[in-house]
Amino acid sequence: MSYVFHRNLATPLPVIVRGEGNELIAEDGRRYLDACGGAAVSCLGHDHPAVRAAIKDQVDRLAFVHTARFTNQPAEDLAEFLVTRAPPGTGRGRMMYLGSGSEAMEAALKLARQYYLERGEPERQHIIARTPSYHGNTLGALATGGHESRRSPYAPMLMDVHHVRAPYPYRLQEPGESPEAFAQRLAQELEDIIQSLGPERVMAFVVEPVVGASLGSQPPPPGYFARVREICDAHGVLLIADEVMCGMGRTGSLYALEQEASAQGAVCADITTLAKGLAAGYQPLAAVLARESVVQAVAEGSGILLNGHTYMAHAITTAAALVVHRVIEADDLLMNVRARGAQLEAGLRDRFMAHPHVGDIRGRGLFFSVELVADLRSKTPFPSRAGVAMAVREAALALGVLTYPAQGCVDGINGDHVLLAPSYTSSTAQIDRIVDVLKAALDQVLASKRHAS
After folding, report:
1. Cα(12)–Cα(15) distance, rounded to whole angstroms?
2. Half-sphere exposure of 308 toward its Cβ, with a 13 Å CA cutoff?
3. pLDDT tens, position by position, 313-335
């Protein structure tokens, strides 16, 4: 009997006792190739010796000091590493450390509010986000997210947040519409809602550069973020980039927003949230990167960050993350992300482009998803009660590969997709195995459902 309050109380869970490379090993000896990193977390596999050594060394030196009175060198060094590699326009930004992506989003929203208070604009209070999206499980983050099945149990407790549609070409792009025109049309929804609320009352636009779990690794159409940045600048609205899932190398660049540069220049967020690949699962760590202009408003105002947490800038977690990113840079793993990502995409397209129940294949870097549909011509999704994506996960698990299933990409409830986010150290053989197992698992699930019907 377990005394842990597990996510599912009806199904006993295998006990994992060891990690070896990109595999997890259970107490019964079964090995699982991790093709999803848990939730796009384990970007360096499960036993990197340099990261393990850094954690052990830091434990011997210093574990915890309270940040109200002290700082520590790992936190300072990690901040310098990440800020100096941030997209152009970040300037002398600053890094705030938290314990999870949800905490990071809460802190980002609070920082946006403080920014306007420092500037004497207390009337700015409206938040705009997108649907579908997912920004975390705490109440503020959940309210900001636009994913109905996650929000609905807590709806009476959530603050009001306004939503526009995320660019979802498979279902929203019109016949004959170019990707550039589609981008401008969806960005116009932001302009329209800002105007309807009153520009002087809007605080922030919160957006995932590449939409993660709620929409299945959906990249933006070309020009979308350049136009979004123009709109935010025109109305004095802060752009908050949620890179908790898609950042820190997952899509092939350290920051996901780096890839949205246009002829007009780089696109830079005012506030960026980070987690998951930040410490690669070796320690629980998240962060908020504030652009220089945001930091300056606080520095020239009260000079005090209003949001504080006990475990901010923890020495062990930041020491681990620093080595994670030194390894990624020294070993040129972002190049491997791009190369193995291209292999993954090619493999998925080869196996699934003609599949009668795969409607879309989308992603960037080592962050790809397949969307599953009941009918290819009409794009009709499987009913949520059928649990197709979850069944694919179980079938792949039985074949020794871990995948990340999700539902709700169509309307927040219906719409199945399976997301893949393997380690940055993945080999060509491992990518081939992931594609092979996903095909076998999907075929097995669909055959069983046809037989049952």
Report:
1. 9
2. 8
3. 999 999 999 999 999 999 999 99
Please give the order of strands across the beta sheet that includes 404-407: 358-363, 368-372, 416-420, 404-407
Strands (DSSP E) contained in 161-284 are 162-165, 202-207, 238-242, 271-274
Joined together, the tokens standing for residue 343 give: 């292999």
- List, in sequence order, every beta strand (DSSP E) within 21-93: 23-26, 31-34
Other C-beta atoms closer than 10 Å to the C-beta of 188 total 13
Helix (H) or strand (E) holding 317: helix 315-330
Instruction: Indicate whether 450 pLDDT > 70.
Output: no
**Phi, psi dihedrals of residue 8, rounded to the nearest 5°:** -125, 115
Bridge partners, 368 (sequence order): 363, 420
**Contact yes or no for 365/411 (Cβ under 8 A):** no
Residue with tokens 């962060």: 287
Phi (first) and psi of residue 42, to 5 degrees: -80, 75
Q: In what order do the strands lie in the sheet with 271-274?
A: 94-98, 286-290, 271-274, 238-242, 202-207, 126-131, 162-165
Count other C-beta atoms under 10 Å from residue 3's C-beta: 4
Half-sphere exposure of 157 (CA within 13 A, CB side): 11
Helix/strand/coil percent split, the chain, to 5: 40, 15, 40
What is the per-residue pLDDT across 291-316, written as a single tens digit (0 to 9) for each? 999 999 999 999 999 999 999 999 99
Q: What single string gives the DSSP state of each residue in 59-79?
A: HHH-----TTT---HHHHHHH
CA 307 – CA 64 distance, rounded (Å): 19
User: β-strand 31-34 against 23-26: which pairing, if any?
Assistant: antiparallel
Give the SS3 label for residue 370. Answer: strand
Alpha-helix runs per DSSP H in 166-216: 169-172, 179-197
User: Is the pLDDT confidence value at 148 over 90?
Assistant: no
Please give the Cα distance from 291 to 61 (Å, whole number): 32
Torsion sign (Cα): 324, 81, 366, 190 = positive
Q: Confirm whether pTM is higher than 0.70.
A: yes
384: amino acid identity, one letter: S
Q: How far apart are CA 103 and CA 122, in angstroms?
A: 23
